[in-house]
Write a structure and sequence with these properties.
Helix 1 packs across helix 18 and helix 4 packs antiparallel against helix 6. Helix content is about 70%, strand content about 0%. The chain is mostly helical. It has a domain of about 170 residues.
Length: about 425
């Protein structure tokens, strides 16, 4: 079962990744890039942990390993082969001989076979190992039925394991984040790189499994704010919630259409931005095993970023009609007028939600093609040839980046359509309603 609001959240995340690479290619100083880089990548393992929670037990290990191989490693080798062919052809065109193409192949092939990857593809083996390392944690935490059939002592021991195993998983990830990684896993030198990243990212999968469902309970129970939120979240009280709902109801009586989910999402985004302001230049570079000046901040940044994206994905499900007077016979004409005025807003919301869900559903393909297949280079070069590039950050720069991002996604849509044509399937149109 697909959850459309998670696809929307993934769509936001992959758009951020493409934006970061576009900004790096443009050569300008983009103040958004350090902020977005602090959580753009780590939200994907957080989403994996959250999906693992929703799906429950993954069954036996070898069928699970087979599924992960076909969903992560097989696409990795497929896209690596395509990248190898593209780079070899490019070297042959620029060098004019087979020698240059051979040198390119000898440069890329070892990195691909060692699961290090060439470009953004490195993330797929790392996530594969993270999922494999997380398997015993998820199996223990999801095996509630087995625990209930045990005797008292076995049940108490099982509960102790359910507590200690996630703590150990998070601790291993934190140690790998905070300690120098050059000395780790020297005996497994060839696959050391993806294994190190797998050990790091499995902690984020664990955190997504443990904390995101509890944090999102607030959407399922509007009258209850969960207390065991991580310490970096602003604590919320019932009084604050009641005040906010009264403000939303007042806006509804005035004819406005405000979604309470978006209202509550703003403090989370503000907290994430303040976290970046307090600790500047702390964003990581997982590609080169650099985890930022303050590695521990990767966890709060990932939690706040993934929670905010999921919340926005859920908010796009609901029209936000909180008007308590709707249906009142004295307000029929006003309701009809408000209904006409809100048509455009609902159409825009549905279009935005469908577009984000489409990008999220094909986020793996977009991640592996936008950079290695030179899509952003083509867009940046063509756009710069037609229009004057804005060197400084401002309105013109933001407009240019938005236009380039749109062009890249249009090219990605063409690639996705060609893929579906080759497979003999039609491109699915994302539904505007999510499956809870």
């Amino acid at each position: 079962m697909r959850h459309t609001y998670i696809d929307r959240a993934r769509g936001i995340a992959i758009l951020i990744v493409v934006y970061i690479h576009l900004a790096a290619l443009s050569g300008g100083t983009d103040p958004f890039v350090p902020f977005l880089s602090s959580f753009a990548l780590t939200v994907f393992p957080m989403f994996s942990g959250y999906l693992r929670f929703l799906r429950g037990s993954s069954g036996r290990f070898f069928p699970f390993l087979k599924r992960k191989f076909f969903s992560l490693l097989l696409p990795y080798f497929s896209f690596s082969l395509a990248t190898l062919l593209i780079e070899a052809f490019r070297s042959f065109r620029t060098g004019g001989s087979l020698v240059s193409a051979k040198e390119t192949v000898l440069h890329i092939l070892p990195a691909s076979l060692s699961l290090t990857g060439f470009g953004p593809e490195w993330f797929l083996p790392a996530l594969f190992f993270a999922e494999v390392f997380f398997y015993p944690v998820g199996r223990i935490l999801c095996d509630d039925a087995g625990a209930g059939n045990e005797t008292g002592n076995r049940k108490g021991g099982f509960r102790a394991v359910r507590i200690l195993l996630p703590v150990l998983s998070l601790l291993v990830s934190l140690v790998m984040l905070c300690c120098p990684v050059d000395g780790f896993l020297t005996a497994l030198w060839y696959f050391r790189y993806p294994l190190i990243l797998g050990l790091v990212l499995q902690g984020f999968v664990t955190a997504g499994f443990l904390f995101l469902p509890r944090m999102l309970e607030v959407l399922k129970k509007p009258g209850h704010w969960p207390l065991p939120l991580p310490l970096f979240l602003l604590s919320q009280s019932r009084r604050v919630e009641d005040d906010a709902m009264r403000q939303v109801a007042a806006c509804g009586r005035a004819g406005a259409r405000i979604n309470p989910s978006l209202l509550y999402c703003l403090p989370l985004l503000l907290s994430l931005f303040l976290l970046y302001l307090i600790y500047p230049r702390c964003y990581p570079d997982f590609r080169h095993l650099v985890f930022g000046r303050v590695p521990l901040l990767n966890y709060p940044a990932a939690m706040l970023g993934s929670f905010s994206m999921l919340w926005i994905g859920l908010a796009l499900d609901n029209p936000g009609d909180v008007n308590p007077d709707r249906g009142n016979p004295d307000r029929i004409e006003e309701d009809e007028h408000e209904h006409e005025e809100s048509k455009r807003g609902r159409a825009l919301r549905n279009f935005l939600g469908a577009a984000l869900a489409f990008c999220g559903k094909h986020s793996l393909l977009i991640m592996c093609t936008h950079l290695n297949w030179y899509l952003i280079h083509i867009v940046d070069g063509g756009y710069s040839a037609l229009f004057q590039r804005a060197d400084r950050f401002g309105i013109a720069y933001c407009f240019d980046m938005a236009a380039k991002l749109l062009l890249v996604m249009l090219m990605e849509t063409g690639i996705i359509s060609l893929r579906h044509v080759a497979n003999g399937t039609s491109v699915p149109a994302p539904s505007s309603e999510s499956k809870k």
